[in-house]
Amino acid sequence: MGIFKAMPATIRLQWGLWILLLLLLFFTLLPEDGFVQSGAYAILNTGFYGLVVYGNISFLYPRLFLKNRKVLYIFAAVLGLLAVSLLRTYSMMWVYNTFFNLKPHPEQVTTMIFVRNVSGLLTIFLLSFILRIFIAYFVLKRKAEEMQQQHAQTELELLKSQVQPHFLFNTLNNIYYEAFREAPRTALLIERLSEIMRYFVDESPKDKVNLSTEINFLENYIALEKIRVRHEIGLTFIKETDEDYRIPPMLLMTFVENIFKHGIDKTSTHNQITVTLLCRNNHLVFNTRNDLPRHPVASGQRGSGIDNLRKRLVLLYGDNFELKTERSDNHFNASLTVPL
Fold first, then answer.
1. Which residues sit opposite 226 in a β-bridge?
2. Euclidean distance between CA atoms 33 and 100, whole angstroms
3. Is CB count within 10 Å lower at the N or C end of the chain?
4. What is the pTM of this model?
C-alpha cells in the first residue's frame, strides 16, 4: 500500500483502471466459466487490451500522428489491430483447448471469432484516446499544482527576504540614534550605510531607477569609501542633469568602484578624483578621472568590472552606447555615454 501511495497520481489512476477492468471481466465471466477459467480469460484479455492502449498512446500516436505522419499512423494502427486480434484469437483458443476443453476435438478458429476479436479491440483502441486525455489532464493538473506550490514558496521566501532587511534597517536606525549623541559623524556614516543597503534591497531589482536615486547611491558609496583612506581625498562631483531621468540601476557604479579599488594611493596626500555627470542631446555622459597611485594595487581581477559592464551594456543597449577607458602616465580616465 505504501508503494502504491508513493506512485505519481497518473500511474495510480492507470493501475486503478486496469485492476477495475480485470475484476469486471472476471466477475462477468465467472457465472459461465468458473473461477480458474474466468481468471485466465480476464488476465489474457486485460493484457491484450493494455497492448492495444499503450501501443497507441505511447508509441504510434506520439511517433506518427503528432509528427504529421497521419497516413502511416492509420496504416500502422490497422496493421497492429489485425496482428493483435490474430494473436489474441489463437492465444485464447489455445488456452481453452489446452486447459479447459473436455471435448476430444478441439474447436477451430473461425472467421466470426476473428471478426469479433477485431471489433472488440477496435473499441478498446478508440477508448485509448479517452485514457490519453485523462492522463494529459492529470499531468497538467499536477504541473499546475507544482507551479502553485513553487509560487507559494517564492512568496514565502520573498516575505522572509523582506523581514530580514527590515530587521536590519530598524537595528541600524537604533544604532544611528545611539551614535548621534556621542559621535554625529559616525551616525552620519551609519545613515549612509543604511541608505546603500536600502538601495540594494528596494531599487537594484528594478529595471530602471531615477537618476537622483543613482546619484545618491554613488555619493553614499564614496563617503563610506573615503573613511578607509588615511588622508583626505580631493573629490569634485559635477552634476548637470535632470534627476527625473531613469536609468538601469548600478550602471555608473563600476567606474567609481574601480577608482577606490585600483586608483587610490592610501599613503598619498594628493589623491584627486573628478566625477562628471552630464545630459547632452538626450544622452547621459558619465566621466571619471583619477590620479594613478605610485604603487599600483595588485589584483587578479583587474579589469573584470569594465568587461562585465560592457557585456551588460550590450544586453541593455545593443551597440547604441559608448564606453571608453584611457590610461596615461599620471591619470586614468573612463567615459560612458548611453541614451536616455
1. none
2. 9
3. N
4. 0.49
Per-residue pLDDT at 278 exceeds 70: yes
DSSP 224-257: HHHTTSSS--EEEEEEES-TT-EE-TTSSHHHHH
Cβ-based neighbours of 236, under 8 Å, separated by 6 or more: 273, 274, 275
193 within 8 A of 224, measured Cβ to Cβ: yes
What does the pLDDT look like over 287-316, one tens digit per residue? 988 887 766 655 444 456 788 888 888 888
Count of Cβ atoms closer than 10 Å to residue 248 Cβ: 18
Contact of 252 with 309, CB cutoff 8 Å: no
Give the whole-angstrom CA distance, residue 4 versus residue 15: 9
- Residue 208: in which H helix or E strand, if any? none
- Round to the nearest angstrom and report the end-to-end CA distance of the chain: 65
Specify the pLDDT at position 6: 53
Using alpha carbons, select from 282, 278, 289 the residue that is nearest to residue 239: 278
Domains of the chain with bracketed CATH: 2-152 (no CATH), 208-339 (3.30.565.10)
Contact yes or no for 273/290 (Cβ under 8 A): yes
Burial state string for 180-205 with b = 16 or more CB within 10 A and e = fewer than 16:
eeeeeeebebbbbbbbbebbebebee
Which one-letter DSSP state was computed for residue 332?
E
Question: Comparing C-alpha atoms, which of 284, 288, 277 is closest to residue 317?
Answer: 284
Q: Which three cell numbers stand for residue 312?
A: 551588460
Strands 246-247 and 331-339: unpaired
Cα–Cα distance measured from residue 286 to residue 276, given in angstroms and rounded to the nearest whole number: 6
How many whole angstroms separate alpha carbon 277 and alpha carbon 30? 92
* Residue 143 φ then ψ, to 5°: -65, -40
Grid cell for residue 221: 558609496
Question: 84 φ, ψ to 5°?
Answer: -65, -35
Q: Please tell me the predicted confidence (pLDDT) of residue 166.
A: 55
- Phi, psi for 107 (deg, rounded to 5): -70, 150
Burial of 50: CB neighbours in 10 Å, binned 0-12, 13-18, 19+:
middle
Mean residue pLDDT of the chain comes to: 79
